[in-house]
Specification:
This protein is of the alpha/beta class. The chain is 45% helix and 16% strand. It has nine helices and eight strands. An eight-stranded parallel β-sheet has the order 1-8-7-6-5-2-3-4, sandwiched between helices. The two termini are 22 Å apart.
Protein backbone atom coordinates (compact mmCIF):
# COMPACT_ATOMS: atom_id res chain seq x y z
CA UNK A 1 0.00 0.00 0.00
CA UNK A 2 3.01 2.27 0.39
CA UNK A 3 5.08 3.72 3.19
CA UNK A 4 3.72 6.13 5.78
CA UNK A 5 6.27 8.60 7.15
CA UNK A 6 5.48 10.11 10.52
CA UNK A 7 8.52 10.63 12.75
CA UNK A 8 12.27 10.34 13.16
CA UNK A 9 12.16 7.08 15.13
CA UNK A 10 13.41 4.95 12.26
CA UNK A 11 17.15 4.85 11.82
CA UNK A 12 18.33 6.64 8.68
CA UNK A 13 18.46 4.21 5.77
CA UNK A 14 19.82 6.54 3.09
CA UNK A 15 22.01 9.62 2.93
CA UNK A 16 20.33 12.92 2.17
CA UNK A 17 21.25 14.75 -1.05
CA UNK A 18 24.06 17.28 -1.27
CA UNK A 19 22.73 18.70 -4.53
CA UNK A 20 19.19 19.03 -5.82
CA UNK A 21 17.20 20.30 -8.76
CA UNK A 22 13.70 21.64 -8.15
CA UNK A 23 11.54 21.52 -11.27
CA UNK A 24 8.99 24.17 -10.41
CA UNK A 25 11.36 26.61 -8.75
CA UNK A 26 8.66 28.80 -7.18
CA UNK A 27 6.61 25.89 -5.80
CA UNK A 28 5.95 26.39 -2.09
CA UNK A 29 6.38 22.67 -1.46
CA UNK A 30 9.52 22.58 -3.56
CA UNK A 31 11.05 25.53 -1.73
CA UNK A 32 10.07 24.21 1.70
CA UNK A 33 11.79 20.95 0.78
CA UNK A 34 14.87 22.77 -0.49
CA UNK A 35 15.13 24.78 2.75
CA UNK A 36 14.84 21.63 4.82
CA UNK A 37 17.49 19.78 2.82
CA UNK A 38 19.83 22.78 2.91
CA UNK A 39 19.49 22.72 6.69
CA UNK A 40 20.50 19.05 6.51
CA UNK A 41 23.62 19.69 4.46
CA UNK A 42 22.63 20.25 0.82
CA UNK A 43 25.11 22.68 -0.73
CA UNK A 44 23.90 23.14 -4.32
CA UNK A 45 20.33 23.94 -5.34
CA UNK A 46 19.04 24.47 -8.87
CA UNK A 47 15.67 26.19 -9.22
CA UNK A 48 14.08 25.56 -12.60
CA UNK A 49 11.15 27.66 -13.69
CA UNK A 50 9.93 30.43 -15.94
CA UNK A 51 12.15 33.51 -15.43
CA UNK A 52 10.36 35.87 -13.07
CA UNK A 53 10.90 38.09 -10.02
CA UNK A 54 9.39 35.30 -7.92
CA UNK A 55 12.05 32.85 -9.10
CA UNK A 56 14.78 35.42 -8.36
CA UNK A 57 13.39 36.03 -4.86
CA UNK A 58 13.25 32.29 -4.17
CA UNK A 59 16.90 31.97 -5.16
CA UNK A 60 17.95 34.89 -2.96
CA UNK A 61 16.07 33.47 0.03
CA UNK A 62 17.92 30.18 -0.30
CA UNK A 63 21.28 31.90 -0.80
CA UNK A 64 20.72 33.63 2.52
CA UNK A 65 20.91 30.18 4.10
CA UNK A 66 24.49 29.84 2.89
CA UNK A 67 24.04 27.55 -0.10
CA UNK A 68 24.97 27.82 -3.76
CA UNK A 69 21.75 28.52 -5.68
CA UNK A 70 21.42 28.69 -9.44
CA UNK A 71 18.40 29.22 -11.67
CA UNK A 72 17.56 27.76 -15.05
CA UNK A 73 14.72 28.56 -17.43
CA UNK A 74 12.14 25.78 -17.56
CA UNK A 75 8.54 25.68 -18.80
CA UNK A 76 6.44 22.54 -18.30
CA UNK A 77 4.45 23.48 -21.42
CA UNK A 78 7.54 23.49 -23.63
CA UNK A 79 8.73 19.85 -23.66
CA UNK A 80 10.91 20.48 -26.71
CA UNK A 81 13.18 22.63 -24.52
CA UNK A 82 13.35 20.27 -21.54
CA UNK A 83 16.35 18.24 -22.66
CA UNK A 84 18.49 21.34 -23.25
CA UNK A 85 17.50 22.90 -19.91
CA UNK A 86 18.14 19.82 -17.81
CA UNK A 87 21.26 19.06 -19.79
CA UNK A 88 22.77 22.38 -18.71
CA UNK A 89 22.15 21.48 -15.07
CA UNK A 90 23.71 18.01 -15.22
CA UNK A 91 26.65 19.32 -17.26
CA UNK A 92 27.66 21.38 -14.21
CA UNK A 93 28.03 18.34 -11.97
CA UNK A 94 26.16 15.47 -10.31
CA UNK A 95 22.63 16.02 -9.05
CA UNK A 96 21.64 13.81 -6.14
CA UNK A 97 17.93 14.59 -6.18
CA UNK A 98 15.43 15.89 -8.73
CA UNK A 99 12.15 17.12 -7.25
CA UNK A 100 9.32 17.31 -9.77
CA UNK A 101 7.20 19.94 -8.06
CA UNK A 102 5.41 21.84 -10.81
CA UNK A 103 1.67 21.62 -11.43
CA UNK A 104 -1.56 23.59 -11.66
CA UNK A 105 -4.95 23.05 -10.05
CA UNK A 106 -7.00 24.68 -12.75
CA UNK A 107 -10.61 25.72 -12.13
CA UNK A 108 -12.95 22.76 -12.57
CA UNK A 109 -16.10 24.79 -13.30
CA UNK A 110 -14.43 26.98 -15.92
CA UNK A 111 -12.30 24.19 -17.37
CA UNK A 112 -15.36 22.03 -18.07
CA UNK A 113 -16.82 24.84 -20.18
CA UNK A 114 -13.53 25.70 -21.89
CA UNK A 115 -11.80 22.49 -22.99
CA UNK A 116 -8.57 24.24 -23.96
CA UNK A 117 -8.15 25.26 -20.32
CA UNK A 118 -8.62 21.62 -19.28
CA UNK A 119 -6.03 20.57 -21.86
CA UNK A 120 -3.57 23.06 -20.34
CA UNK A 121 -4.00 21.43 -16.93
CA UNK A 122 -3.37 17.99 -18.44
CA UNK A 123 -0.38 19.18 -20.45
CA UNK A 124 1.22 20.83 -17.44
CA UNK A 125 0.59 18.15 -14.83
CA UNK A 126 1.00 15.07 -17.00
CA UNK A 127 2.58 15.66 -20.41
CA UNK A 128 5.17 18.11 -19.06
CA UNK A 129 5.94 15.76 -16.19
CA UNK A 130 6.39 12.75 -18.48
CA UNK A 131 8.89 14.71 -20.57
CA UNK A 132 10.84 16.13 -17.64
CA UNK A 133 10.65 12.89 -15.66
CA UNK A 134 12.09 10.75 -18.44
CA UNK A 135 14.88 13.22 -19.18
CA UNK A 136 15.78 13.56 -15.50
CA UNK A 137 15.71 9.78 -15.01
CA UNK A 138 18.02 9.27 -17.97
CA UNK A 139 20.47 11.88 -16.65
CA UNK A 140 20.45 10.35 -13.18
CA UNK A 141 21.01 6.91 -14.65
CA UNK A 142 23.94 8.19 -16.73
CA UNK A 143 25.65 9.49 -13.60
CA UNK A 144 24.92 6.22 -11.81
CA UNK A 145 22.93 7.45 -8.83
CA UNK A 146 20.18 9.75 -7.65
CA UNK A 147 16.53 10.03 -6.67
CA UNK A 148 13.57 11.44 -8.55
CA UNK A 149 10.85 12.67 -6.18
CA UNK A 150 7.47 13.16 -7.86
CA UNK A 151 4.75 15.23 -6.23
CA UNK A 152 1.52 13.41 -6.99
CA UNK A 153 -1.75 13.95 -5.07
CA UNK A 154 -4.43 11.96 -3.35
CA UNK A 155 -6.85 13.50 -5.88
CA UNK A 156 -5.49 11.00 -8.38
CA UNK A 157 -6.59 8.01 -6.33
CA UNK A 158 -10.31 8.22 -7.17
CA UNK A 159 -12.32 10.47 -9.49
CA UNK A 160 -14.29 13.19 -7.70
CA UNK A 161 -16.94 15.42 -9.24
CA UNK A 162 -15.26 18.49 -7.76
CA UNK A 163 -11.84 18.10 -9.41
CA UNK A 164 -11.79 15.22 -11.89
CA UNK A 165 -9.79 17.15 -14.50
CA UNK A 166 -6.96 17.87 -12.06
CA UNK A 167 -7.37 14.44 -10.46
CA UNK A 168 -7.11 12.62 -13.78
CA UNK A 169 -3.86 14.42 -14.59
CA UNK A 170 -2.42 13.39 -11.23
CA UNK A 171 -3.64 9.82 -11.69
CA UNK A 172 -1.72 9.64 -14.94
CA UNK A 173 1.35 11.18 -13.31
CA UNK A 174 1.20 8.75 -10.39
CA UNK A 175 0.97 5.70 -12.66
CA UNK A 176 3.80 7.02 -14.81
CA UNK A 177 6.03 7.61 -11.77
CA UNK A 178 5.36 4.14 -10.37
CA UNK A 179 6.19 2.53 -13.69
CA UNK A 180 9.32 4.62 -14.07
CA UNK A 181 10.42 3.51 -10.62
CA UNK A 182 10.01 -0.12 -11.67
CA UNK A 183 11.94 0.51 -14.89
CA UNK A 184 14.82 2.02 -12.91
CA UNK A 185 14.93 -0.68 -10.24
CA UNK A 186 18.47 -1.98 -9.80
CA UNK A 187 20.12 0.88 -11.72
CA UNK A 188 21.15 2.95 -8.69
CA UNK A 189 18.35 5.44 -9.39
CA UNK A 190 15.04 5.36 -7.59
CA UNK A 191 11.70 7.13 -7.73
CA UNK A 192 9.72 8.25 -4.70
CA UNK A 193 6.08 9.19 -5.19
CA UNK A 194 4.65 11.70 -2.70
CA UNK A 195 0.85 11.86 -2.30
CA UNK A 196 -0.23 14.87 -0.24
CA UNK A 197 -3.82 15.67 0.52
CA UNK A 198 -5.08 19.26 0.40
CA UNK A 199 -2.06 21.53 0.93
CA UNK A 200 -2.58 25.08 2.20
CA UNK A 201 -0.62 27.21 -0.30
CA UNK A 202 -1.13 30.31 -2.41
CA UNK A 203 -2.47 28.01 -5.14
CA UNK A 204 -5.29 26.74 -2.89
CA UNK A 205 -6.06 30.09 -1.24
CA UNK A 206 -9.79 30.78 -1.22
CA UNK A 207 -10.76 27.15 -1.70
CA UNK A 208 -12.76 25.34 1.01
CA UNK A 209 -10.45 23.57 3.43
CA UNK A 210 -10.66 19.79 3.20
CA UNK A 211 -10.17 17.15 5.90
CA UNK A 212 -6.55 16.12 6.54
CA UNK A 213 -5.29 19.45 5.19
CA UNK A 214 -1.53 19.86 5.44
CA UNK A 215 1.20 22.44 4.84
CA UNK A 216 4.25 22.73 2.56
CA UNK A 217 6.47 22.35 5.62
CA UNK A 218 4.76 19.10 6.62
CA UNK A 219 5.18 17.75 3.09
CA UNK A 220 8.86 18.73 3.18
CA UNK A 221 9.30 16.87 6.46
CA UNK A 222 7.66 13.77 4.98
CA UNK A 223 9.89 13.97 1.92
CA UNK A 224 13.01 14.12 4.09
CA UNK A 225 11.95 11.13 6.13
CA UNK A 226 10.94 9.22 3.02
CA UNK A 227 14.39 9.82 1.57
CA UNK A 228 16.03 8.60 4.79
CA UNK A 229 13.95 5.43 4.76
CA UNK A 230 14.28 4.71 1.06
CA UNK A 231 10.50 4.85 0.68
CA UNK A 232 8.80 4.34 -2.67
CA UNK A 233 5.53 6.00 -1.66
CA UNK A 234 4.84 8.67 0.95
CA UNK A 235 1.38 9.83 2.07
CA UNK A 236 0.95 13.22 3.74
CA UNK A 237 -0.53 12.99 6.29
CA UNK A 238 0.00 9.28 6.76
CA UNK A 239 -3.63 8.64 7.76
CA UNK A 240 -4.69 9.33 4.17
CA UNK A 241 -3.30 5.96 3.14
CA UNK A 242 -6.16 4.19 4.94
CA UNK A 243 -8.77 6.79 3.99
CA UNK A 244 -7.95 6.53 0.29
CA UNK A 245 -7.83 2.73 0.47
CA UNK A 246 -11.47 2.81 1.60
CA UNK A 247 -12.53 5.41 -0.98
CA UNK A 248 -10.75 3.56 -3.78
CA UNK A 249 -13.10 0.58 -3.31
CA UNK A 250 -16.28 2.49 -2.47
CA UNK A 251 -19.17 2.06 -4.94
CA UNK A 252 -19.59 4.98 -7.33
CA UNK A 253 -23.22 5.37 -6.29
CA UNK A 254 -22.03 6.00 -2.74
CA UNK A 255 -19.29 8.42 -3.78
CA UNK A 256 -21.83 10.54 -5.67
CA UNK A 257 -23.66 11.10 -2.38
CA UNK A 258 -20.57 12.07 -0.39
CA UNK A 259 -19.52 15.75 -0.09
CA UNK A 260 -16.33 15.24 -2.09
Amino acid sequence: MGDTVTDMSVKDAHALPKSLLVLGGTSEIGLATARRLVARGARTVWLAGRPSPALDRAAEDLRALGTDVRTIGFDALDPAAHEAALGKVFAEGPVDLVLLAFGVLGDQAHDEREPLRAVRVAQTNYTGAVSAGLIAASALQSQGHGTLVVLSATAGERARRADFIYGSSKAGLDTFAQGLGDALYGTGVRVMVVRPGFVRTRMTAGRPREPFATTPQAVATAIELGLRRGSETVWVPGALRLVMAALRHAPRALLRRLPL
